[in-house]
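ENTRY TYPE: paired fold submission
RECORD: A
CONTENT: sequence, then structure tokens
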Amino acid sequence: MKRGIVMDFYFDSPYISGLFIITVLLIIAWWRIFEKAGEAGWKALIPLYNTYILYKISMGSGWYFILLMIPFVNIAVYILMCMGLARSFGKGIGFTLGLIFLSNIFMLILGYGSSEYLNS
């Protein structure tokens, strides 16, 4: 059976390599964000638990991430998490909008930047 053009694209070596590099950079950024907030960095490696910790850092209680399973409510909860995360690191509304619309880029900025956790 022949693979289609789409399958060839997704299994090409440069595409897979690029995804791998981006994933590693984001894991390191989450690791640094967690360490800045006083959490152990290794928690960024565990799926779902890392989301729990991110919500704990940004909203005070990690259990808000369960609301992500409810349609339409998840959008509001995600926006509130982005607001809380930006506020926790002393950032304003512009950074919040960046986290909402370009989350991977702004997570990298937050992780690799010089901003400090304000514990708010």
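RECORD: B
CONTENT: sequence, then structure tokens
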Amino acid sequence: NVWCAAGKALFSTREVVDRVKQTMLNKVVSHNQLILPQLGATGVSAHQVKKASGFKVIWGPVRASDIQHFISADNHTDKSMRQVTFSTLERTVLIPVELSHLPKPTLWVLLAVFLLSGIGTNVFSLGDAWYRGLMALTAYAGGILAGAVAAPILLPWIPGRAFAIKGALSGVIVGLAVVLLFKSGLIWMESLALLLITVAISSYLAMNFTGSTPFTSPSGVEKEMRRAIPLQAGAVLVAIVGWVTAGFLN
């Protein structure tokens, strides 16, 4: 989205100027006005665009669907065009986008999970790789469900402001459900490992929604990620060590 791109300097003054020049926009239109989305203002300097390209920046509405009405109203906006909402439906439509990024890393996770799950007193057991691997993959899937599906849908009702915390809390609930599902075949170390994996993945995936909200800032997101990612990575490491160690204790 534009807000996220502007915060990351991908939708920037230089990018706008370069695109204007590359498309030779001055030869396409007779006016010198450029309508840019309101949420791109954090990354674009209007006066620098004017100086470099000759085009005057007019800040348009938040949503692209309002552009036609904005133009017909002589470039004037009403209150609704300037307001950002983040309803349940608007959060839900983002879920497929997040899930679309997961197939490739999931292939590597599948390989790692089955290899690590088979390690034990017999050096490597295909039976354990399959049986324990399915449990670990269930925890992985639970983390995805909690962080990429449940967290955005239930966002206003999950305690905490940081998305990493919201994701972790939803991950705890799903993680406990995973542990209860397999409780008869687990030792405590395996239970802890499954819980940590679910929580870490859920927390990480929930952070991906920070760039889609109307109440976060680039600096705040960066600060949250600097704090959360080391903890998430640490939880995954502890879970892996515990999971492999448990293979020698069963």
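NOTES ON RECORD B: The mean pLDDT is 92. The longest strand covers residues 33-36.
STATUS: closed
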